[in-house]
């Protein structure tokens, strides 16, 4: 079973939890990494301070803002196996990430706008305001059939989502 594997014997293993803010990337990613015995890294922690300030002020990021961040994400993936939370909203961003981590699989955690907004509003101490949700949803390009990954609904508990992800990983 996958949860018994030793990542060091398999080469680079990268599981990217993707999706808009409020989708549970951090919660699910942390639980998934624990379940698989892998390192977890939150891509939000790699944002340049200017990006954090821009988002905190209610201004959406653009491509020019995201490329330096994606470079940091890629640098981390080049040096580590693990599970990473990274919005990876566009196909071009995911393709860029795969330049650093060719075997990366993308786990898209997805929910309705209403559920995402509720979850964002309930968070304490996060820099991303609910007002930016619509810009993220407009930017989001769903996984295409030729991309390595799958979509998981956030309607279930985080533990049930992790169970579904592990089941999917074991089959692929």
From TrEMBL:
Keywords: ATP-binding, Gluconate utilization, Kinase, Nucleotide-binding, Transferase. Belongs to the gluconokinase GntK/GntV family. This is Gluconokinase. The keyword Transferase applies. Pathway: Carbohydrate acid metabolism. GO terms for biological process: D-gluconate metabolic process. GO terms for molecular function: ATP binding; gluconokinase activity. It is an enzyme of class 2 (transferase). It catalyses: D-gluconate + ATP = 6-phospho-D-gluconate + ADP + H(+). It comes from Corynebacterium gerontici. GO terms for cellular component: cytoplasm. Its EC number is 2.7.1.12.
